[in-house]
Specification:
The chain is built from 14 helices and 18 strands. With about 425 residues, it is α/β, with parallel strands linked by helices. It has three domains: about 30 residues; about 100 residues, Urease, subunit C, domain 1, CATH 2.30.40.10; about 290 residues, Metal-dependent hydrolases (TIM Barrel, Alpha-Beta Barrel). The termini are far apart.
């Protein structure tokens, strides 16, 4: 009873916070109609693909799309002018590995994922997702890939709520329930075999793998996520290749959670679309990933994130692998795996802090920014729609005081956010 009362009060607090936050924004910046026009005066306009900056550009936004970009764009008389002439303007950021509908509970030993999944029902997880989605958008993340751990499809509900304009948040590519060998990421008890559901779909035969993929797609998943190796038994390269082919046949990509060297090697050999984590990968594994056009989403934990997640020794392991992956030339997309509560931080500010690991690994700012934009857009399959500031693309636009090509830490100071032509934040 006490847990129920506490949970309900927290849900009410979140809803009240959302109402207080959203009403002033909605009143000042209504949802864009087909004829709503903004003219953004950009003092500096960054092209992450080229790693270049253009001065004194005008971005004309009509409805949800960018209509034109250039130094001499004619501003219509009915356009609302947004003056960012003293700032740097760039495309919205991407987080290719997040868990919006989960924040870990803590026991006496630290964060505990198993306890979280037992205590937090799917409706609460969806509410949690609303708060985290809002905070991600406020930090400039206009597109994310949500890779599971959402109970019984809370991620689909969240994505649909955002798409319908009910709540603010980034564009979401969601994975539904994670497909995994028996047990998933848990150690179960024989008399309580259902404790890992609905968190996972156990699939140990090819028929079960097919059913898991189709069940996810049926319930709204836009990408398939598998766990390769969190048990003594792991998916073989043949198993993974079978899942890749089936997912691609059904029109979705495959992300593979790999926490061991053997798991990552099998995933790289099978040619998955992305390896998640992969912190134990050797140079040989990284070369194989590069050869097979596998994108690495390294979730490169900062020192703070590693400590708060209960893995204080993992930060240098991530940074070392990140450094080697960059030197080898593996294509990388920015992803965070931020899933814990850190006092004084939001989910969005935590995600932005992950650039610290990229700086520590010696990755140049232009390549980090590319991983946060165009590389991630291609991995998520939304390039040609988002990830750049070009005519015909969605108007996902952010601004920072300084140029992130000069100092990538500038992405932690986003003060202006436009998503699909609607201004969400303007400080």
């Amino acid at each position: 009873m006490r847990l129920h009362i506490k949970s309900t009060g927290f849900q009410s607090a979140i809803i009240l916070s959302l109402l207080i936050t959203a009403i002033p924004l909605a009143a000042q910046y209504p949802m864009p109609g087909p004829d709503r026009v903004y003219a953004i005066k950009a003092g500096k306009l960054v092209d992450p693909e080229k790693g270049t900056t253009e001065m004194n550009q005008i971005i004309l936004v009509r409805g949800k799309q960018i209509e034109s970009v250039g130094p001499n764009v004619q501003i219509p008389s009915d356009a609302k002018i947004i003056d960012l002439s003293k700032s740097t303007v760039l495309p919205g950021l991407f987080d290719a590995h997040t868990h919006l509908c989960m924040t870990l509970k803590r026991d006496r030993d630290g964060s505990n994922y198993f306890i979280t999944t037992l205590l937090d029902p799917t409706p609460f997880r969806a509410i949690e997702g609303v708060a985290n989605a809002r905070d991600m958008l406020a930090s400039g993340f206009t597109t994310v890939r949500d890779v599971g751990n959402n109970g019984n499809y809370a991620d689909t509900a969240l994505r649909e709520g955002i798409e319908r304009g009910l709540v603010p948040g980034p564009t979401i590519i969601n994975a539904g329930r994670i497909i995994a060998p028996y047990g998933g990421q848990f150690r179960l008890q024989p008399e309580k075999r259902d404790l890992a559901t609905p968190e996972y779909i156990f699939a140990d035969t090819h028929d079960e793998m097919i059913k898991g993929i189709r069940e996810n797609i049926h319930y709204g998943a836009k990408v398939i996520k598998i766990v390769v190796d969190d048990q003594q038994y792991i998916y073989s390269a043949e198993d993974i290749r079978f899942i890749v082919e089936e997912a691609h046949r059904d029109g979705v990509k495959l992300a593979a959670h790999c926490w061991t060297r053997a798991g990552a090697h099998n995933a790289a050999e099978a040619g998955v679309d992305s390896i998640e984590h992969g912190e134990r990968m050797t140079n040989e594994d990284l070369q194989l990933a590069k050869k097979n056009h596998v994108v690495l989403v390294g979730t490169d934990f900062t020192e703070i994130a590693a400590r708060e997640s209960g893995m204080p020794d993992m930060h240098p392991v991530f940074v070392d692998r990140l450094k080697r992956a960059y030197q080898i030339g593996v294509t990388m997309a920015f992803g965070t795996d931020a899933f814990v509560y850190v006092p004084g931080e939001t989910r969005g500010t935590q995600a932005a802090e992950y650039v610290d690991s990229w700086v520590e690994a010696g990755v140049p700012a232009k390549d980090t920014l590319r991983a946060m934009t165009i590389n991630a857009a291609r991995l998520l399959g939304v390039d040609g729609e988002r990830g750049e500031i070009k005519a015909g693309l969605a108007a996902d636009i952010i601004a920072t005081p300084d140029n992130p090509l000069d100092d990538i830490q500038a992405v932690r100071k986003v003060f202006f956010v436009m998503k699909d032509g609607s201004v969400f934040k303007n400080e």
